[in-house]
Amino acid sequence: MFKKEVYIQRREALKKSLKSGIVLLLGNGEAAVNYAGNDYAFRQDSTFIYYLGLDTPDLAYVLDIDNNKEYLFGDELTMDDIIWMGNLPSLKDRAAEVGISTVLPSADLKKIVGTGLAPAHYLKPYRYRNLLILSELFNCKTEEIVHNYSVELTKAVIKMRLIKSAEEIRELEDAGAIGYAMHLTAMNMCHKGVSEREIAGMIEGLALAHGSRSSFATILSMNGQTLHNHDHSGILHAGRLMLCDAGAENLNHYASDFTRTTAVDGDYSQKQTEIYNIVLKALNDSIALAKPGITYKSVHRNAYKIIFEGLRDLGLMRGETEAALDAGAPALFMPHGLGHAMGLDVHDMEDLGETLVGYDDEITRDTLFGYKSLRFGKRLEPGHVLTVEPGIYFVPQLIEKWEKEKINTEFINFSALKNYLDFGGIRLEDDIIITDKGCRPVYGKRLPVTPEEVKFANTNGTV
Q1: What is the DSSP letter of 429?
Q2: Could you read off the pLDDT of 345-379 as tens digits, one per residue?
Q3: What's the first-to-final CA gap in the chain, in angstroms?
Q4: At 439, which CATH number?
Q5: What is the β-pairing status of strands 430-434 and 439-441?
Q6: Which of 327, 275, 283 is nearest to 302 (CA)?
Q7: What is the pLDDT, as a whole number, of residue 199?
Q8: Please, which residues have CB within 8 angstroms of residue 99's CB and are 6 or more apart in sequence?
Q9: Contact in structure between 178 and 210 (CB atoms under 8 Å)
């Protein structure tokens, strides 16, 4: 948690951004794995953490803007709670830690927000439990609850959370340090005969040892052409590449998200090196371009330009650059966006609506395959925290589909691609903060990224 004043200031800023009414923020409850007494590790709602800092299940917060009052709703510990969980601080004491003086039982929530006397601002629920709570509070069908969420509140929260404060940046740096250690370990363990599962388990253990958990399900596989590959059943063998996309959530729930692609035993073949260096140039040039006033949508397009021209030099693509970009041809090799916002969530605030977070009235989402997958396209501002993650992937089924349907045949050398169908994929990813004049890494020490640096880390385990 931060100092009490941080949460008070955030709630005061939220109040000023809305004209009137009642703001309702629901915390999360516990969720059962397979029966009521066996729960998943509790994770509080990120917006609730941002404004309240309280990491306890089954809480609700109400801000009555018109009457300048705020309430925390929850229930004090029962004797059973104390027996099983310990004699924790009272809810009233916890509320005082974040500047709230009025604490009421959960049963009183409807008395405040269910009267209909003032417009109620709430965020679109992403958990079924909270959907049902809202449905009961407002005596509405669940479909109405989903449809009637407050766009005004959502936009106000997004505007605040997108710009990271100094204390948030320190937390992100801490998460970055854990992520750095995770990836350095993965590089060092990337040797033939080692199981993917052993490496994934080792680095997730580091996330738990130094933070609260992994910030998302670890992607670690020799089959890097599958973008979100959570299957760790392979045994590493010579000649293959291991793509590792992983990050940590620190003790205050801020995230990191890095990707590196390591050759087994550190030895990249000529073909792997050629593709790797195109991705590396796309990464470095994208970071160099990212600065205030530039749209991330334009940085994404430039990454496609680098990928197209690099693959054209290898004989895998052909034609004029701008025409190929307009046609969406490079998306065959990078069918995802260049990056996303990051903070308390690894894909920051996507529960609030990916398009609302990443786009606005000025910058709208593309409709072309690949381009439309860019999660964040807005004009960059100081305080934005983003991932930069270009990649090149050879997905046999997608290549076969495009060839069969004659998609972008004027730009793609399908016959030359036959020699790459077993290649896999390469992705490289760093986290950046937009500064007043440009950007900088979230964590000051950059992970090994050139083939030479990665080989050294693979051999020595340190850099």
Answers
A1: B
A2: 999 999 999 999 999 999 999 999 999 999 999 99
A3: 33
A4: 3.90.230.10
A5: antiparallel
A6: 283
A7: 98
A8: 4, 5, 7, 8, 11
A9: yes
Check whether residue 271 and residue 332 sit in a common domain.
yes
Q: Residue 279 has which token pair?
A: 């991705």
Residues 390, 303 contacting (CB under 8 angstroms): yes
Q: Please report the pLDDT score of residue 462 as a whole number.
A: 67
Beta carbons of 135 and 114 less than 8 angstroms apart: no
Are 113 and 228 in a shared domain? Answer: no
Pair 321, 262 in one domain: yes
Whether 28 and 140 map to the same domain: the answer is yes
Q: What does each C-alpha distance from 59 to 49, 81, 101, 128, 435 come to in angstroms?
A: 11, 16, 15, 16, 36
Report field, pTM of the whole predicted structure over 0.90: yes
The number of domains in the chain is 2
Final residue of a structural domain among 139, 162, 185: 162
Token pair recorded at residue 306: 């680098």
Out of 135-139, 208-212, 352-356, 368-372, pick the least confident: 135-139
Q: What SS3 state is found at 334?
A: coil
In the DSSP assignment, the letter for residue 109 is H
Q: How many CB atoms lie within 10 A of CB 78?
A: 10
Indicate whether 144 and 231 sit together in one domain.
no
Burial of 9 (0-12, 13-18, 19+ CB in 10 A): middle
| 26 and 53 inside one domain | yes
DSSP label at 413? -
User: Considering 127, 143, 162, which residue would you say is the last residue of a domain?
Assistant: 162
Domain range enclosing 29: 4-162
**Which CATH number fits the domain that encloses residue 80?**
3.40.350.10
83-89 — which CB contacts under 8 Å span 24+ positions? none
